[in-house]
Design brief:
Blueprint lengths: L1 H42 L2
Length: about 45
């Protein structure tokens, strides 16, 4: 029973890491979009 619990916890931890990694990618993409818009706005001034 202990081995099953350890395996289950490991799988859940890996899944959580992937979720956080995906959220990081989303925030990075949003940051790039904001940077692009700011650069375009400054270029038009």
């Amino acid at each position: 029973m202990h081995k099953s619990a350890i395996v289950l916890l490991a799988v859940l931890a890996l899944g959580a890491c992937e979720t956080v990694k995906g959220a990081g990618r989303d925030m990075q993409a949003a940051g790039h979009a904001v940077t692009k818009e700011a650069t375009e706005t400054q270029g038009g001034m």
